[in-house]
Amino acid sequence: MNDQLEQALPFTGERFVPEKLGNIALEHLHRYHLARGLVTNRVVLDIACGEGYGSALLADQAARVIGVDIDAQTVDHAQRKYTRPNLEFMVGDCVAIPLADHSVDIIVSFETIEHHAEHEQMMHEFKRILRPNGCVIISSPDKKYYSEETGFVNEFHVKELYRDQFSDLLSKYFANVRLFNQRIAYGSAIFPEDRQGEFQNYYMSHNSVVPMQGVRHPYYHVALASDADLPAIGLGLMEQPIDESEIIGSWRQAMAEKDALVDRLRNAVAQAEADRAADQERAAQLARQVGTQNNETHYWKSVAELEKYAVGVLRREIDALRQERKAILSSNSWRLTRPLRLVRRFMKHGMKGLKAR
């Protein structure tokens, strides 16, 4: 099957590829599986389709799917990798979509809008190609929580939107808009087997539990927009075994780096001990030479040589210790284990101990 034979696209740090695991896979796959429930027997545009994995997922349910991306190499890859009778890919821009007026039922636009600044023109194009009762499902990172509060700068993003800006933009062009929140979370899930009943979310921190609406500090918003009544959508959880999660993978990597550092330090200590034994032997030879000198001039010359040698040994040991400390403080394991050190310090000294760091 072509899906298995086609070579994977390189991961750029932004465009998701299905071979990449971790949080980015959960975020992207969850959105497409959510959209999959809306597209049964519909004609679908997947704008900025990227590698094509999402378009292929949608094609399992849709009557027809057109994946459009601005990058010709990516489109060529998708055409070779994903072959379905109801799936096609083409080169195009989200502000100049190569489709006829009123030609699609559903527009899927995930993580597209932040990559350019022509948001109004993009909405005009959506309205142009969408059928009268059509629907848009679109996502956008929340500028406040994705960037400002984390201090993260995504070099691929041109214009990020706050929650209200995103909502206002969609409401300007569509009669009905509904927003959903998305963020990777750790917690407990309780869901009814029959999909009946209301959802109640809680947030727990420092032994305090408070009820809340939606997702606290969402990194992304997913929106449904249409001039017709909005379709029902299957909300829920995309779960992953904890031992396969990105955080556990990071800790394993940190521990591996720590073990490697310990091995390097152990080898350095062994070498230092060997060097010290050699230094001690050299110092003993100098001392014996000093003790056997008959000529006073030669005596004091040997003493000065011994002192100079001893100072050199001490300086080398100090430099080695400084390098070890620098390597430890700059290592990933030191940074990643900082929360554990803070917790340990807090348990021992309370808030005073934390302020000391």
Automatic annotation (TrEMBL):
One of its GO terms (biological process) is methylation. Residues 45-138 form the Methyltransferase type domain. GO terms for molecular function: methyltransferase activity. Residues 255-289 form a coiled coil. It comes from the Bacteria. Keywords: Coiled coil, Methyltransferase, Transferase. The keyword Coiled coil applies. The keyword Cell inner membrane does not apply. PANTHER family: METHYLTRANSF_11 DOMAIN-CONTAINING PROTEIN, METHYLTRANSFERASE TYPE 11 DOMAIN-CONTAINING PROTEIN. Belongs to the methyltransferase superfamily. This is Methyltransferase domain-containing protein. It comes from Daeguia caeni.
